[in-house]
Protein: diguanylate cyclase
Organism: Pseudaeromonas sharmana
Amino acid sequence: METLQLIGGFARSGEVNLGQYQARNAIPNRDKLELLETLMAQEKLADVLQTFAAWVATQLPVCRLAYHFMTRRMKLLDSMKRGHKQSFTLQDTRHQYLGQLDYELGDELDVQQKRLLQHLHQLLAQPLRLFLRMDQMDMQSRIDHLTGIGNRAFFDESVQRAIEQNLRRPDGLTLALLDLDHFKQINDNHGHPVGDKVLQEFSAILGRSIRRTDVAFRLGGDEFALLLQPADEGAPARVESRIRYHLAHNSELTPLQVASSFGFARWEKGMHASELYTLADRHLYEVKRKRV
């Protein structure tokens, strides 16, 4: 019997039997209430979507299911079996866009099944809108308001998560610490609005100098950090070279002679986050001392 794997393992059994789905003309009120209460009881957006996916898989011949919203894509259900692809746009009662569900279905849906799926999507809309908003607010709390990159809280969380990922699947992790040379003089000579503009431009340079798998943070003041993952031994030098190139060719920063110091450390098994930070900070200090 073909089985359907739940991505994230939310269901009690971890998989759903494709032979158990039932085509219904409508959802009984008791089932509607149970599904809605279960969705609203979840703690995270991913749990809401996985709960919904598990429910749908007991009703319809789903081979695969993924959720897509802006740049985010989450796999919810997966199986070896391929099916007919069909996508549905999710909206609330005010026609606010809530994302898209991409299905692969083992069989073409009949009229009753399509009506059932429509009802299920309508039930999902209310908790989905709420959890998307909560997720957005949570993300905003991790962003530096001036530069738009990660803040110190997000940095602390991300370093620990990256270490845990490397413990499970080592692929190289490097922490780079940066600050702007003589930044206080820029503020003193040109004013804080110019200083803020420098921080914003430098943050944009960091974003252009790293890959999509890397993350940039502003730790405070003119102090920045980069998490490079995966990262071989040559990754820091390549990133530093790109940063220096962009600094030298930035029309806003070159007149101010903005320069940056760069220190880094590679994570090794058994190393705590605080140790990794200390090593990178020590390297940054050595670099700055040699420039004096």
Observations:
- Strands lie at 3-6, 15-17, 62-69, 72-78, 84-91, 97-105, 174-180, 215-220, 223-228, 260-266.
